[in-house]
């Protein structure tokens, strides 16, 4: 293909959009292997599959969608989202800590979005100056780069894990984070941090309660010390309802306020919420951006800005899942039925993770720490080479910057030992 094709039609940024998404490219390779008759293992896709390979669906949600009134399927939603859904989004973000936070004077706002990706776009489009760098962990979901650069931003990173094992915070590099945050504060008047936690994609690692508090304290200290620099901490909570502490951040924020930590005007906490995984409605593209701040005027302004941004980008987020999910959670019976199905699917992941860790340990495969969610991770300096060697054994995983993403969500339990053996063989 001529690299200059369309140069007279496409703007310079559009011309930088090349190649295929890595995850979907490796998924296509798995599908081709199956088509050719090979007994292949799918560890590529980021959707939860049953042990028979079919898509795992929360049938409580499915049943509710199938009986939704025609109006709720066909009509536009309000530009900011259905009020009942926006209220639910706040609860999904904060959990049982929401009421206590509101009693402590914290104001909350939410805007519906097309999935968690839409929430990330809202943040990238509004919480940083064009040309600024967003602070990420050095192991992160690849599409972050697209959302960030598409909004005229750049990014810098801090290490996923600390170098020293002699630390109170084994699953987050607090010192590395502080160093990079300070550097940004010296050159920008706004800083935005994206932290995918708990159940980090692509590693499956989650911060401990101590780690969360140390991270939040680092952000609060930076905001206090740099009063002319706006600080936004975005918690990407795409997988949080599959974690052992799904609302750990709500608890940490509440405890910080109760302990008297100063919440300065230049600090915003915001959550990207996704219904794709938690309610298995990937294709209905339903999510929300939830923002919290002590000043109600701030959250009101954010609500206006996000609503206008959505209107100018996708008009209104899809209505039917907003209606269905908020109706379902409006009764204890509906919430409990959904929760039972979610727990069943979470158990699939826990069982697969435990077997992967056990078999990798037996074979000497040095997996990274992994606790929650859809994925596990093997750190490696040559991820493409390892993934290719696994593919030669008809085990398909995803090579990303710095390592291999293992999609536990997609691998049937009986095939987990094949994944461990393929990695062991590849590492030899």
What's the short story on this structure?
The protein is of the alpha/beta class. It has helices spanning 22-35, 59-66, 70-74, 83-94, 98-103, 115-126, 144-150, 174-185, 209-225, 248-258, 275-278, 296-313, 320-328, 332-363, 383-391, 416-427, and strands at residues 41-42, 107-113, 133-137, 154-158, 190-196, 230-236, 267-274, 287-293, 375-379, 395-396, 398-400, 403-407.
Could you explain how this protein is built, in words?
- The chain is of the alpha/beta class.
- The protein has two domains: 14-58 and 336-427, Aspartate Aminotransferase, domain 1 (Alpha-Beta Complex), CATH 3.90.1150; 76-318, Type I PLP-dependent aspartate aminotransferase-like (Major domain) (Aspartate Aminotransferase, domain 2), CATH 3.40.640.
- The protein is built from 16 helices and twelve strands.
- The strands form three sheets. A seven-stranded mixed sheet has the order 2-8-7-6-5-3-4, with helices on both faces. The chain has a three-stranded antiparallel sheet with strand order 9-12-11.
- Helix 10 (248-258) links the parallel strand 6 and strand 7.
- Helix 8 runs parallel beside helix 9, helix 9 (209-225) packs across helix 10 and helix 15 crosses helix 16.
Q: Can you tag this structure with a few keywords?
A:
Aspartate Aminotransferase, domain 2; 16 helices; 15% strand; alpha/beta; 428 residues
Helix content: 40-55%
Largest sheet: 7 strands, mixed
Would you identify the CATH architecture of the largest domain? 3-Layer(aba) Sandwich
Rounded to an integer in angstroms, the radius of gyration calculated over CA atoms is 22 Å
The tally of domains stands at 2
How much strand?
5-15%
